[in-house]
């Protein structure tokens, strides 16, 4: 376990191709008490895959509030329209990007598809059930989670309407922070969630997004990145 932890830390330190800030700071919802959540993508050297023990597909840490994916795993999740990964790829707060990272960013549109409707809404439904359980058990939801669920539903609706994934909440900051502070009744928050989900469903009918992501284009990028890493490792 110690060796695996050391390898993960080395991969994050030495082979990061893309790093950004996520969470409230990226969403435009940060307050003085907000943490700084960092996410990243590393490219594990190709020769590591020639061993029986493969490099980790993700690494937690080594810094606090830091989480990183290996490039292939990141691409797999993004192709499936994983909400957290897609949002990471669209963060306005980029801290580091190599040539490979910049190419990954240039491919953001290739990951987007109508699949986002299913994955975002399914994720939102699961989170909503947890909030409803909190209300039944404790009389109130976790307000911070309620705020972020509203934000996610807004993001999904707007992505389906425009074909572009916006991260910063803009003018919705004040209303969302009021929810976080518990200043909006749960019944009203619940009503907003229902309305946003319905608007996302309506937008999905006429969305400009393609039916499928451009998997071939992403795979070509990944193969070239792996090949370049192999050549570098052999030098």
Q: Mind summarizing the main beta sheet? A: 5 strands, mixed
Tally of distinct domains: 2
Strand content: 5-15%
Distance between the amino and carboxyl termini: 30 Å
Assembly state: single chain
Query: Could you name the CATH topology of the largest domain?
Result: Beta Polymerase, domain 2
What is the count of DSSP helices, taking H or I runs of 4+ residues? 11
Strand order of the largest sheet: 3-4-2-1-5
List strands and helices in order, with pairings:
Layout: H1 2-14, E1 16-22, H2 24-27, E2 37-42, E3 58-60, E4 66-70, H3 71-79, H4 83-89, E5 94-97, H5 99-106, H6 108-111, H7 115-138, H8 143-162, H9 173-180, H10 186-205, H11 215-234
Parallel strand pairs: 2-4
Antiparallel strand pairs: 1-2, 1-5, 3-4
Helix pairs in contact: 7-8, 8-9, 8-10
Compose a concise summary of this entry.
The protein is α+β, with helices and mostly antiparallel strands. The protein has helices at residues 2-14, 24-27, 71-79, 83-89, 99-106, 108-111, 115-138, 143-162, 173-180, 186-205, 215-234; strands at 16-22, 37-42, 58-60, 66-70, 94-97. It has a five-stranded mixed sheet, sandwiched between helices.
């Amino acid at each position: 376990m110690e060796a695996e932890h050391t390898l993960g830390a080395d991969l994050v330190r030495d082979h990061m191709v893309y790093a950004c800030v996520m969470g409230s700071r990226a969403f435009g919802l940060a307050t003085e008490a907000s943490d700084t959540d960092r996410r990243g993508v590393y490219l594990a050297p190709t020769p590591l895959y020639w061993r029986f023990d493969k490099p980790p597909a993700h690494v937690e840490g080594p810094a606090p509030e830091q989480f990183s994916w290996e490039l292939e795993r990141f691409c797999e999740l993004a192709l499936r329209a994983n909400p957290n990964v897609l949002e990471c790829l669209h963060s306005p707060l980029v801290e580091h990007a190599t040539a490979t990272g910049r190419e990954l960013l240039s491919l953001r549109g290739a990951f987007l598809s109508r699949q986002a409707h299913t994955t975002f809404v399914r994720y939102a439904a699961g989170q909503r059930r947890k909030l409803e359980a909190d209300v039944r058990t404790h009389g109130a939801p976790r307000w911070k989670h309620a705020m972020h669920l509203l934000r996610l539903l807004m993001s999904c609706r707007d992505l389906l309407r425009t074909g572009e994934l916006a991260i910063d909440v803009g003018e919705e900051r004040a209303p969302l922070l009021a929810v976080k502070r518990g200043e909006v009744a749960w019944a009203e928050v619940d009503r907003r969630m229902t309305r946003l989900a319905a608007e996302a469903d309506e937008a999905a009918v006429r969305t400009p997004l393609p039916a499928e992501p451009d998997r071939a284009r992403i795979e070509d990028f990944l193969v070239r990145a792996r090949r370049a890493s192999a050549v570098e490792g052999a030098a």
